[in-house]
Amino acid sequence: MPDHLKFYINGAWVDPVVPNRIPVIDPSTEEVFTEISGGSAVDVDKAAAAAKAAFRSYSRFSRKERLELMEACLAAYNKRYDEIAEACAKEMGSPIGFAKEAQAWVGQQHFMATIEKLKTFEFSEKRGSTMVVKEPIGVCGLITPWNWPLNQIVCKVAPALAAGCTMVLKPSEIAPINALIFAEAMHEAGVPAGVFNLVNGTGPEVGQVMAGHPDVDMMSFTGSTRAGTIVAREAAATVKRVCQELGGKSANILLDDVDLDSAVRQGIGACFINTGQSCDAATRMLVPVSLHDKAVEIAVDEANKQTPGPAFAKGTVLGPLVSQMQWDKVQRLIQAGIDEGATLACGGTGRPDGLNKGYFVKPTVFANVKPGMTIEKEEIFGPVLSIMPYDTLDEAVEMANDTVYGLAAYVQGKDIEKVRNVAAQMRAGSVFLNYPDMDFYSSFGGYKQSGNGREYADWAMHDFLEIKSIVGYGG
């Protein structure tokens, strides 16, 4: 691995134009373990220029050439798989087993799904005497978050490559090392110079510059709704396409015929996975009034099995939150739940017993949560579940949809037709029925303030393509 202080631009590792070091903190220990460079507008200029120059040739690559390149990228990724997982454990506190089985794994799977769909993707369609073609949009600015870093990097890089685009990636400055290893894998795979570029840095100094840059044709952003609106505003002046995957406050509706024990226990997993740091986490569990108290009892029992601990410690289920800022936010919201009258069933403020250092939080369950409470409305991004009783199914649907977000929803029940009927009423981009396995060929994205693009496999490719009609093309 090259120096963490370098950027990857035009096929080479280069120094920033203006030195600016950013510490990278191990959230399990709160200690700085390395530094990266923070970029500036001049670094973005260099990367965008390289991508623009490379677009002229890469956009003309055949499907066969793109497939061969992406297969090489996947092979290089697999070679660095363990290093990528270890970086996720170190810089974001992901338990090492989870880092290998989920964090690094999802990047691999997204590469595979996109490659498979590229094989049969239709780039042209004849309509009468018109040929409608889908062409690469150009230079793409990619901004990715820290919580599922490889998921989001590959969800953007793979379809951009498949579509024939060139790109500049700005990974999160909080968890950037996995992205540097990824960039090295791209280089080892033989990605042509300028097709893939990486500039580290903060949102204001790099991300916003990318969004407003005249040589960037499209922005793909994953992160908070607040930051997403900034990216969209900066992009507006150049009328570039903006695709966003933003926040969420997903409801998990348990129907009255549900296997309560199984549904609640799996619901804890759907909420607490990745220490609750998932935009589509099932953070609001809606249960019939008659089942509420039993559901709380089961939830507390399961939550208490979610052992917090350092990323590399044996037996850790919940790693730390990623930063002091995230820890402070989650503490504030747990306190708000207590202050506003929700029943604290387990957990609460402060660190778990025996963990005096690191951004650790107690697995927390609130009962009797009512619509309008802060913990019911705000995205918490920690292992905090809100259990809400409902009287009728219509009321549950209304409560579930009463949010500014619309990324995901969950429905559990034995009567599949009833489950599907509820799913049809959810105002969300993805609805998960009875805790299905992850499907890398589904679409992923949100309604309302959860965003406006779609990712995964060929769904993502559409966002990286322009449509051209060649009228009078003939027979």
TrEMBL record:
InterPro entries: Ald_DH/histidinol_DH, Ald_DH_C, Ald_DH_N, Aldehyde_DH_dom
GO function terms (MF aspect): oxidoreductase activity, acting on the aldehyde or oxo group of donors, NAD or NADP as acceptor
SUPFAM superfamilies to which the protein is assigned, alphabetical: ALDH-like
Keyword Oxidoreductase in record: yes
UniProt-listed CDD domains: ALDH_CddD_SSP0762
Domain Aldehyde dehydrogenase span(s) in chain numbering: 13-470
Domain of life: Bacteria
Swiss-Prot/TrEMBL keywords: Oxidoreductase
Pfam family for this entry, one: Aldedh
Family (UniProt): Belongs to the aldehyde dehydrogenase family.
Protein name according to UniProt: Aldehyde dehydrogenase
Lineage: Bacteria, Pseudomonadati, Pseudomonadota, Alphaproteobacteria, Acetobacterales
